[in-house]
Amino acid sequence: MRRRFSDILSIFISLYFAAATVDGAVSKKIKEPRTGIVFDSKVQNLSLEKLGVRTKGPLKVYAVGQYGKSSSHNNKPNNAFVLKMYMSISREKMSSALMDALKPRCKTFGCDANQDTEFQDMVLQALPSEGAKSGTVLTFTTFGNKVALTVNGKAAGKVSGKAIAKAFAAIYTDSKAVCTMNPIVEKDESESFDRDKNVPGIVTAILAFLFALYTTYNPYRNKSGNLVISELNIYPIKSCAEQSVDSAVVTPRGFKGDRIAMVVDSDKVCCTTRDTDKVKLFHVQPQINFPDCSTMTLSYKGEQSPLTVKLESIDTTLVACSHNEAPGKLMLSDLGNTAASWIANATGIQGSRLVSTDNEEYDRICLINPGQGDPIPTSNSKAPVSLSDEAPFLLTNQASLDDLNERLLKRGHLPIDMRRFRPNLVVDAFQPWIEDTWKKIRIGGKVEFFVWQRCGRCIMTTIDRDSLTRAPKGEPLSTLNTFREGAKGQRNFGMHLIPDVATLRDDDEANWTVHVGDTIQVLEYDMDRMKEWESKFEN
C-alpha cells in the first residue's frame, strides 16, 4: 500500500514523544527561591534556563520558568514559558495583564491586526470561571510559528503567526521584560541528564518506532492513533451541570447516575435550558455520592445552602411526565416538596418538581432520529435509555473541538469549551472528526459500544455556561452549518453510543467500569462514513 508523507511523519512524531517521555521521567525539580514554587528541569524536551517572579507592588503574582534548547537564542521564538500562580486572580485580570504586556510588543514585531485581542480572548476562555487560582499552571509555547496555551496540562488554544510568537517571548526576554529572569545555575554537572547516553531512553524510542510502524501499515488504525479517555462526565439531572468523575459504571441506559432525574414544570412537562426562562438550570450542580448512589447533593453557584436529596424512593408517588424527546408519558417518582422548593428558589421556575427514574415502571427505549436516519444498532432494536435526549452515551473528540475553535476564530468569534456539548466521554484522537468513522469500539479492554449516529446540535450549544448569555450570532451553530451540516439539516458534533449488552453480563460491576486514561480500541469502521471523512477532512 502506498504510504503518504503524513504517515511517515507520524512515525517520527511518535519517536519524538517517546524521547520526550523518557526525558521527562528523569527530570529534576528546581525550586524558585522567592516563592518556593517547584519547576521541572525539562518540559517538552526543553531545558529550564531561567526563573523569575511577576510582582504587582509587594505582591508576588506568579513564578515563571523559561525553557529552551541549549543552542537557542532569545531572538528566536522557540521557547516555552511556564507560569505557576502564587496568588489567585480573576481570569479577566490575568488575561488583561498578559494582553497589556503583549500589545506594545505586537507593534514592535508587526503582528497581524487584532492578534493581541485574539490572544486575550484565548486566555480568557482557557481559564475557568473562578479564575487563575493559586497553583494553576499556564504553559505557553512559542515554537512552530504560533503561541499555544495549555492550562493544567490541557490544551486550551493557540494564536498563529511568527510575529506574535516573538512578541510573547519578548514579554520575558527583552530589555523591558515584566520581571527579572535569572539564569539557572547547575550545582552538580554530574547529575545532568544526557539523553544520548540514556540506554533505556533509546530502547523506549525504538519500541515507539516499531509501534508507529505497525500503526502506519494498518490501513485504519493509523487514522485514529493512540486513543485514551481524557474526560468522563455524568449529568445527574437533565439540563443541569455536569459531575466530572475519574471513573464511571456502564449500564444499558447510560452511566450509573446519568440523567436519572429531571425538573418538570407545573404542567409536568420537562424543563430544559432551550427555554430562556429556564437557563438557570445550567447552574444547578448535582453531586451523587458514588459508589452508593443513595443521595444527591444540590448546590447553586454558592448562592443558597446545598440540599441533600435521598434517591431511594421514600414517597412512592408516581407522576406522568412529558419528555421533550419521548412520545407519550413517562412514569417518574416525585422526590418530594423540599427538593421542589429548593429547585424553584434556585431557578425561578415556580411550581417545578424534581422527578426521577427510580421506579419499576420507567421503561424508555432509543428511537430512530428522523434527522439522522441511522437504525438502532443492537440486535433487537430495543436499547434502553435514561432521561437523555436520544442515546445512553455521547462521545466527543477534543481534536474536533480544536478544529471548530480555529474556524470560529477565523470568522471573528470567541472559542468555546467542551461544556457546550455535554459529553459523557471525551477523547483526543489527534485527527478532528475521525470519530465519525467508528462503528464499534472497546474501552479499557472490557466494555464494547456501538457507535450509532452523529449528534445533531441544538440552541443549547449557543449558551455560555458561566454567564448564561446566548451568542448573538448563533455560534457555534452558524459555523457548524458551514461544514458539519447533514443531509437533513442536522448540525453535527459528537457521536451517540449504545453499549453492547453482551459485554455487560459479568456480575462484577468493576468489569463494567471505565476510567479516565483507559484506552479505546476501534473494532470496526463504518465504511460510508469513512469515505465521507476522507473526502472532507483527511487532508
UniProtKB/TrEMBL annotation:
InterPro entries in the record: Chalcone_isomerase, MoCF_Sase_C, MOCOS_middle
Key words, A-Z: Signal
PANTHER family: MITOCHONDRIAL AMIDOXIME REDUCING COMPONENT 1, MOLYBDOPTERIN COFACTOR SULFURASE MOSC
Protein name per UniProt: MOSC domain containing protein
Signal sequence, start to end: 1-20
Membrane spanning residue stretches: none
Domain MOSC intervals: 368-523
Keyword flag Transmembrane: no
Gene Ontology molecular functions: catalytic activity; molybdenum ion binding; pyridoxal phosphate binding
